[in-house]
Amino acid sequence: MKNSLSRSGLVYSTDAGRMCPDCRQPAAACICKQLKAAPKTDGVVRVSRSTKGRGGKTVTLVTGVPLDETALVKLAKQLKAACGSGGTVKDGVIEVQGDHCNTVLQALLKQGYAAKRAGG
Q1: CA 97, CA 49: separation in Å to the nearest integer?
Q2: CB–CB of 114/43 below 8 Å?
Q3: Which positions ≥6 away from 68 have C-beta within 8 Å?
Q4: Does 64 lie in the same domain as 31?
Q5: What angle do CA 27, 32, 35 make, to 5 degrees?
Q6: Residue 30: enclosing H or E segment and its boundaries?
Q7: Do residues 69 and 99 share a domain?
């Protein structure tokens, strides 16, 4: 548990505007996002289909993408648009609603990722 002194700090400055609570830098020059690098993977993007924990609904899962969170959200938006369906990003895994493994796989290969089909 952090003590009260580490939690208190400058939140806004009339000179610099909003301040990052973690690195205490102006929001425009925040270094926290640079420190949160992309997760380490083996270089292979895996595309699979799953229904577990979703009430029988099928989703296409994309795991192992070596991107940070903001780039992962952009890639998810492109994949959802290619499939014409919804989806989300949870814990570094892209979920696209429906069984779109082949469409997602082709879109990833077209963008230059080393992608392969995982699972059955």
Answers
A1: 10
A2: yes
A3: 33, 36, 37, 38
A4: no
A5: 150
A6: none
A7: yes
pLDDT by residue for the chain (120 residues), tens digit each?
Answer: 444 444 556 556 667 677 777 777 777 777 776 555 555 667 889 999 999 888 889 999 999 988 888 889 999 999 999 999 999 999 889 999 999 999 999 999 999 999 999 886
Amino acid residing at 8 = S
Type of residue numbered 55: G
Place of tokens 């973690």: 22
Of residues 91, 102, 97, the one with CA closest to residue 65: 91
Which one, of 25, 6, 9, lies nearest residue 17 by Cα?
25
pLDDT of residue 4: 42
d(CA 58, CA 52): 8
Domain residue limits at 27: 11-35
